Amino acid sequence: MAARWSLTVGEPFPTSSVSWAAPATAAGRPAVLKVQWPHAECEHEALALATWAGDGAVRLLAHDPGRHALLLERCEPGTTLAAAGDPDPLAAFVDLLPRLWVAPPAALRTLADEARAWRASMPGAWERAGRPCERRLVDAACSLVDDLLADPPAEADHVLVHQDLHAENVLAADRRPWLAIDPKPLAGERAFACAPIVRDPDLGHGRADVLGRLDRLTSELGLDRERARAWTVVQTTAWSFTSTFAAEHHQTVRWLLEGC
After folding, report:
1. What is the C-alpha separation between 129 and 125, in angstroms, rounded?
2. What percent of the chain has a predicted confidence (pLDDT) above 90?
3. Residues annotated as part of the active site
């Protein structure tokens, strides 16, 4: 890819885990070369970035789908929101989310389909992980999937959703205060987008922190609190069994189930 796109490529970023990513220079301009490990969540990353066209997220400069390679705008200074010491990090999310909520491309997987897959896989994932939490958390998440899908929002309310918008995936940039990276996109309802923010331990891990983020996001963005709470329980449980923050995520789910 360096040869094809005439890049000078530096050492890879040490925090890259699911993709290989490194700073690069393209025609004298800073960029990032990202080569993905192919998996379902990243399948439409380039499509999402192209759809946003730099409004709220990094720009896509080039894409080679056959090699799962993306050339991206480099955020400078590139400090994560988690590390920036911002006294009000939620304000960054309140600004970013409406920019990202645009009409979803037709090719995107839907939140409903993803939720059905989570529902089918959660009991087995819980068993394989060694039953790391009470079974009632899994049962509650499965029940909430049924409730959410039984009462869907209107199709017109579906938007392009960044399903992993936590404080490590928001970077300081020169052209905007903050830009999103690594979208894992879905077509779904706005309330779902609260989930990664509400559970993010980098933003404070305590009952008051979790419920406070839920209350503020839903209030300031005009979202249905109950649906946002339910989606956070569902995705947090589904993702917990392979997460390095499993214990924190299970505690977050307990607080959300108690704080309804």
Report:
1. 6
2. 93
3. 164
